[in-house]
Here is the input.
Amino acid sequence: MRSLSLRPFLAALLALLACAPAFAQSAAPLAQTPPMGWNSWNRYGCRIDESLIRGVADAMVANGMRDAGYAYVNIDDCWQGERDKDGFIQADPARFPSGIKALADYVHTRGLKLGIYSDAGVKTCGGRAGSQGHEFQDAAQYARWGVDYLKYDWCNTGTGAAQRNPREAYATMRAALDQAGRPIVFSICEWGDSKPWEWAAGIGNLWRTTGDIANCWSCKLGHGSWNSLGVMEILDKQEGLRRYAGPGHWNDPDMLEVGNLADLNENRSHFAMWAMLAAPLIVGADIAGLKPEITRILTNPRLVAIDQDALGIQGFAWQRGSELEIWARPLSGHRWAIAALNRSSVAQNHMLDWSKEPLGDDLNQTFAKIGEHHFNLIDAWTGKRIGDTQGPLPLHVAPRDAQVFILEPKA
Ligand code: GLA
Here is the structure.
């Protein structure tokens, strides 16, 4: 009798244990460091199909990007076809004839993850079906397909008083992703309009802080009702936002133009500054066609490690001259990253006197106390030890270049 009455209890216990790994997985915190990967938009716009995406995954394995930490292969706008008779979104059958599930499987077998794109409005920015009114259905579909990352845009969400409330709209998709039960990084893309840094930390893993990046060092390109911005303009718009970023919830100054920018120094600086900002590193270039010197920038282990530092503290402009800016970022292990950014088209020389301006981060109450403590200086681009903080550091920064140093406490 006794053993019989225990049976349902044991069965329930076994069922619970069998589910435990799934629960543990969906509860695992995502994006504890800024997400790294690739996205189709900057380079290809709507000119995408499944063979491009497969080729990118292959190239990221072959050129070392995957092993350097780039995990996500993200399809941006224009992958969508029609909804089926039950309202489920389907991939465009001409561009993605094998479907998204097959693509996710392909990407997963290469040790990478698949990202997808939708929009909180009735249509995406590219005029495809948006998720408004279909949030739970779409999230469930993405989970079934094995999608790992969702970029969620803000076009066609209404105007004036009829516009959707962004917080509500993004919270609805958050709830839908939670219900779908698969760990999916949630990338909020409403361009910083409603200051998502003030409300989105519990909703998304990253939020765009600006409109779209343009493939230029410094420019403002008009597109009718909106402008895209150059790398320097986007950098300047990050002012005041560092307090909002941290593990699991990052400021997103938009995807990288590294590999698209014309000048090698510009590519280096853009990458260095995004690393100083603890920005998501989502490459927007032709991966199979990357020049080796660009691959070397993207996979530089010390620059990637700055971006991915476990403390997740976003850097700040420590000293600003008219053309030369010196940025600082506290790192784990009482280390610091320092970047000297030359915004101008003329080489800049400067003597960095460590004793002149105290190196400290008031927000995080972290102070280097140079003088009391001494640091070895490592050139982050080369990995070479170039001296220490006991004397001033002469800086010679080429036009639009950025030198980057790591300060390591002396034993
Ligand atoms: C918006 C986003 C871009 C890109 C396009 C796609 O402009 O900000 O990053 O996703 O839509 O249409």
About this structure: The pocket of alpha-D-galactopyranose is lined by residues 41, 76-77, 124-126, 153, 189, 212 (CB under 6 Å). The CA atoms of residues 204 and 231 lie 24 Å apart. The radius of gyration is 23 Å.
